Amino acid sequence: MILHRQFVVITVVGGVFNLFINNLLTKCFVCFKICVSKLTNNGNMNLTQQECNDIISKLDKENYSFGLAMRYIRQKQGLTIRKVAKDVKKTPTYISDIERGNNKAPEKELMQQILVVLEIEGTQLQDYLYDLAAKERGKVSEDIADYIMEHEDLRVVIRMTQQQKAGKEFWTECIKRIQ
């Protein structure tokens, strides 16, 4: 997906990855709606793709937990704990406890509400936070678990690559082909 000021161009490369196309198009449509919404608000998007990449690099480099990553993003967006808590209908103490690691990462519904308040829904930061939460819980990321369970072919592909011990190089090539 390439974002321009007034429109979005979606490019999908076919081939052996046809089973991913529906999900990609759905994600692109969601991103398109979010981008159009943000572009009509004073013509600015809160975080650019590069800013998201820079934040992810920093969080990865410093090995942030879910809570610390959430705090970093919240502060980067200029939001207070009280504002986030009010918008997601939780107490400031509850949000603070998540950030300090005293509460588990939130479940899917609350997580989605937090992503909206942090203004990172539809970005790589959203995926990053879902993945951090999943690692801490020892589960598959909640944003993709249902999709995986709905598609038997995808589960077969995952198991085959697991059995063949496919490494980072294999998955990097898959990602390049899908993009």
Structural description of this entry:
This protein has a two-stranded antiparallel ribbon with strand order 1-2. Helix content is 64%, strand content 2%. The model is unreliable at 1-45 (pLDDT under 50). By secondary structure, it is mostly helical. Helix 4 crosses helix 5.
For this entry, give a set of tags.
disordered N terminus; 10 helices; mainly alpha; 179 residues
Secondary structure layout:
Blueprint: E1 2-3, E2 8-9, H1 21-39, H2 49-61, H3 66-76, H4 81-88, H5 92-99, H6 108-117, H7 124-137, H8 142-150, H9 152-163, H10 168-178
Antiparallel strand pairs: 1-2
Order of helices and strands: EEHHHHHHHHHH
Portion in beta strands: under 5%
Tally of DSSP β-strands: 2
Largest sheet: 2 strands, antiparallel
Mean pLDDT across residues? 78
Radius of gyration: 17 Å
Low-confidence stretches: 1-45
Biggest sheet: strand arrangement:
1-2
Gap between N and C termini, in Å? 8 Å
Helical fraction equals: 55-70%
Q: Which of globular, elongated, flat, extended, rod-shaped describes the shape?
A: globular
Number of DSSP helical runs: 10
**Which structural class should the secondary elements be placed in?**
mainly alpha
